[in-house]
Specification:
This protein is mainly alpha-helical and about 100 residues long. It has 4 helices and 2 strands, in the order αβαβαα.
């Protein structure tokens, strides 16, 4: 299976998105539904990556771009995990209230 994936990857190479393009998408969603509903998840399993963010050591590049675009520290914290933690807490609260 891995050989088939590599064959396809070599036959149809794609350009990597940049950190700036990633943050363009974050901007779009923030403008569409608000910063309280945006989060970043990472998936460093060896497939695809973002130019300038090829592994976890380069994640600060995303944070730097968010700051450069005027996001506050509080909003960046929301994007990097505070939003998902808020949702998880609510899910647990609701689950407990219904006896799940």
């Amino acid at each position: 299976m891995e050989d088939e994936y590599m064959d396809i990857y070599e036959k149809y190479p794609s350009e990597k998105a940049t950190v700036q393009e990633l943050v363009d998408h974050i901007d779009y969603v923030v403008n569409l539904i608000g910063v309280d509903h945006v989060g970043i998840g990472t998936d460093f399993d060896g497939g695809g990556s973002i130019e300038g963010c090829d592994d976890v050591s380069e994640l600060p590049n995303i944070t730097e771009e968010l700051f450069r675009r005027g996001y506050s520290e509080k909003d960046i914290q929301k994007i990097w995990g505070a939003n998902i933690m808020r949702v998880f807490r609510k899910v647990v609260e609701v689950a407990r209230s219904v006896g799940a």
